[in-house]
Design a protein that fits this description.
heterodimer; A: mainly alpha; 2 domains; 4 helices; 71% helix; B: mainly alpha; Cytochrome C Oxidase, Chain A; 2 strands; globular; binds protoporphyrin IX containing FE; binds copper (II) ion
């Protein structure tokens, strides 16, 4: 099949890609400068960063993966749900596990390093 | 100019030199043979630049087989070492070299043998089974293969230049951090996996799209052969799990390259986060490998029992259940690292639950065989070997899913025995069986049966000899990665039996190569004349063997799950519609170029040669952009040519 000879700039999806590019840059830079200029941390800080990440996610989904424009059968939708499910499992699971580890080991217990080294089973190389 | 690279990177101790020389010698040997036979042009035109999924599949399998030999040599060296290194005798490997071989063995076997065989087989048969002419994105397929190749090349380069990681196949920090591994070994490990991993991710996308979009008309999802379902679920896991690996390795390399502290305890990092993340990929990876093997066995059992697969629907549900459940069990890989009872209980129970859909499959196979007229051809004999070993492995696995037991067993030889049980008995046996099963379709003749039976025997006996002693050793307290032990422990005889077992496996592999050689010699006698050597059930058997490069002269339409079987049963007439032109993608070297540059980037990052890294990266991007703007187009094979070719095939079949 020969490619359509329309100019790139008239192409609708091309415009969407450019928009996506700009937005993804904005969200990345915003998050970076926000994080570097703000050293206090705290809940609000975390939430703001998460919002930037969410904006980034939407940009990727709409501008690059075209999740909003789909015909039947809804494979994109199914793929999205499956991905969301696994992301949820990994994120929630990791938070739960890491929280639990910290509870039992105290945050950043140096013993954990020793334990991994022992578990990995040989005298440490010089 | 050359970063950290200098002459010290060349090997110096005798065993390392031996490895380097055999690698260089082998490469030069192959190159010389190609030059002597004047085959370079042929190799380039017919194979390296080809976008035909079947050819890409064969290249995957060739690379994976070479890597299997390398992985086996490593394993033999490891077991040889432990067979003699008791008490006074310290064996022939230094501790450091032992750890490197151990890490190389695990890495190569998982990423370049098991994954390679899997992608190879999928490429060979998936389009044929679906009644399609090719995969959805043929060019992407070539890129994937060459990225896989580049990763493989990097691992092997470490034999000659520098060293390989000694931090195990999963490279836990702090061991893999700069403090304990200042050399380039861990960087080789990281970048070869990054590059091969991107290839895997692209393949995953490619095969999912192929299955969803390229099925023959009439083939609904529920009429798809079960192998295609197993590939679909496995690739779902690939596209969701491999990004986790990429990010984890990316963070580790930031720690090593830029001095960040994601996984060090200083400055608030946490090595346990690495362990957590790598297993969030690692557990799904196990199922990525095993699901297609299940699919292969399902096809084999149905074919050789002359019955339709029992419980197709339950099989599909089991596959989908595994695709979800495998994301909520990963903690069982580090039960003992400080998680509390609630967490352990949850993940322990989930692990036991995931055994249920797996058990369902075993029963489905048994019911398929029940009252079937079973034909014990080679693939079926592999299946029997698989059931035997896999059941042992499954039971020891469920044992270890009990956290209390795992506290005894983790990090022991028991664990090593368990997972080799699954991975050899399940994955390797499955892929070998699939290879034998589909071999005639791709090459046009069967493999020698009798020799094949000896091969199964050798693998099975060798496997039992090599790994049953490890269960016992594990119970006695031997740990993983043990390169030397006290003679008073009385372990040596078990290690010697295990080493003998490895020898028997090597014999089996030797027999396999002999089988291939003999079969090629006797190919006229073993010729598959009608394209259906096993009385098959699915569409791939409806084409002549070897399958023509366009797969189907006329795209089939499908009304039944076992379409080809139904056609044979109802003696349906061949499709009499006229031939049509066929479009096929043009060969291209772009895949090789992109992967070559990616490999160069990897090498440059390992040795801190920054200009080369930048150059390679820019090169990759330029080629990709060029490729997406300038479409090289398709070649069109006119209907008349197809007709002539098909008639010729038909004539050969009749004679
Ligand atoms: C065919 C015969 C094989 C033999 C004789 C063999 C032997 C070994 C040995 C001796 C070790 C080191 C165990 C230790 O000292 O702790 C090992 C580890 C390992 N093997 Fe194999 N292996 C074989 C096949 C495979 C295959 C097919 C795979 C995967 C597809 C595989 C994956 C691994 C991995 C991942 C490890 C690291 C385990 C760990 O971290 O404890 N092996 N193998
Ligand atoms: Cu697991």
């Amino acid at each position: 099949m020969s490619a359509p000879t329309k100019s790139l700039l008239q192409d609708k999806s091309f415009k969407l890609y450019v928009q996506g590019f700009v937005f993804s840059l904005i969200f990345t830079l915003a998050a970076y400068f926000f994080a570097t200029s703000n050293t206090s941390g705290g809940l609000l800080f975390g939430i703001t960063l998460a919002l930037f990440a969410f904006g980034q996610l939407l940009t990727q989904l709409i501008c690059f993966l075209h999740l909003d424009q789909e015909s039947k059968p809804r494979y994109n939708q199914m793929a999205f749900i499956y991905t969301a499910l696994t992301v949820f499992a990994i994120v929630a699971g990791s938070l739960w596990i890491m929280h639990n580890l910290h509870y039992n080991m105290k945050p950043q217990d140096p013993n954990i390093e020793q334990k991994i080294l022992e578990n990995e089973g040989y005298e440490i190389r010089q | 100019m050359l970063g950290k690279l200098n002459l010290d990177a060349l090997p110096y101790d005798p065993i390392a030199i031996g490895g380097a020389i055999s690698l260089i010698g082998g490469t030069i040997g192959i190159a010389a043979l190609l030059t002597y036979k004047k085959r370079w042009g042929w190799l380039y035109k017919e194979w390296l630049t080809s976008l035909d999924a079947k050819k890409i599949g064969i290249m995957y399998i060739v690379v994976a087989t070479l890597m299997l030999l390398r992985g086996l040599m490593d394993a033999a060296m490891l077991r040889g070492q432990t067979a003699i290194a008791s008490g006074e005798n310290s064996g022939y490997l230094t501790s450091d070299h032992f750890q490197q071989m151990f890490s190389a063995h695990g890495t190569i076997m998982i990423f370049f043998v098991a994954m390679g065989l899997m992608f190879g087989l999928i490429n060979l048969v998936l389009p044929l089974m679906l009644g399609a002419r090719d995969v959805a994105f043929p060019f992407l397929n070539s890129v994937s293969f060459w990225l896989f190749f580049a990763g493989m090349a990097l691992v092997n380069t470490s034999l000659i230049i520098g060293e390989f990681s000694a931090a195990g196949w999963l490279a836990y920090p702090p061991l893999s951090g700069l403090e304990y591994s200042p050399g380039v070994g861990v960087d080789y490990w990281i970048w070869s996996l990054q590059i091969a991993g991107i290839g895997s991710l692209l393949s995953g996308i490619n095969f999912i799209t192929t299955i969803l979009k390229m099925r023959a008309p009439g083939m609904t999802l529920m009429k798809m052969p079960i192998f295609a379902w197993s590939v679909l679920t496995s690739m779902m896991l690939v596209v969701t799990a491999f990004p986790v690996l990429t990010v984890t390795l990316g963070l580790l390399s930031l720690d090593r390259l830029l001095g960040t502290n994601f996984f060090t305890t200083t400055l608030g990092g946490d090595p346990m986060m690495y362990v957590n993340l790598i297993w969030a990929w690692g557990h799904p990876e196990v199922y990525i490998l095993i699901l297609p093997a299940f699919g292969i066995f399902s096809e084999i059992v149905a074919t050789f029992s002359r019955k339709r697969l029992f419980g197709y629907k339950s099989m599909v549900i089991a596959l989908l259940a595994i695709a979800v459940l495998s994301y909520i069990v990963w903690l069982h890989h580090f039960f003992t690292m400080g998680a509390g009872p609630n967490v352990n209980a949850f993940f322990g129970i989930m692990t036991m639950i995931i055994a249920i859909p797996t058990g369902v499959k075993v029963f489905n196979w048994l019911f398929t065989m029940y009252r079937g007229s079973i034909d014990f051809k080679n693939p079926m004999i592999w299946f029997l070997g698989f059931v035997m070993t896999f059941t042992i492995g499954g039971m020891t696995g469920v044992m270890m899913s009990v956290p209390a037991i795992d506290f005894q067993m983790h990090n022991s030889m028991f664990l090593v025995a368990h997972f080799h049980n699954m991975i050899i008995g399940g994955v390797v046996f499955g892929y070998i069986a699939g290879f034998i099963y589909w071999f005639p379709k791709i090459f046009g003749f069967r493999l020698h049966e009798k020799l094949g039976t000896y091969v199964v025997g050798a693998w099975l006996i060798g496997f039992l000899l090599a790994f049953l002693p490890l269960y016992i050793l594990g119970l006695k307290g031997a740990t993983r990665r043990l390169d030397h032990y006290d003679s008073s422990l009385g372990w040596q005889w078990l290690f010697i039996i295990s080493a003998i077992g490895v020898g028997v496996i090597l014999l089996g592999v030797g027999l396999q190569l002999l089988q291939l050689y003999v079969s090629i010699k006797q190919r006229h006698k073993l010729r598959d004349t009608n394209g259906d050597p096993w009385n098959g059930r699915t569409l791939e058997w409806s084409t002549p063997s070897p399958a023509p490069f366009y797969n189907f002269a006329k795209l089939p339409s499908v009304t039944h799950r076992d379409e080809f079987w139904e056609r044979k049963r109802s003696k349906s007439k061949p499709d009499a519609s006229p031939y049509e032109d066929i479009e096929l993608p043009r060969n291209t070297p772009d895949g090789i170029i992109i992967a070559g540059m990616a490999g160069a980037v990897g090498f440059a990052l390992i040795w801190h040669i920054w200009w080369l890294a930048a150059l390679g990266l820019i090169g990759c991007i330029v080629i990709l952009i060029r490729r997406s703007i300038i479409n090289p187009g398709e070649i069109i094979i006119p209907a008349a040519a197809i007709k002539a070719y098909e008639n010729q095939l038909l004539k050969r079949t009749r004679s």
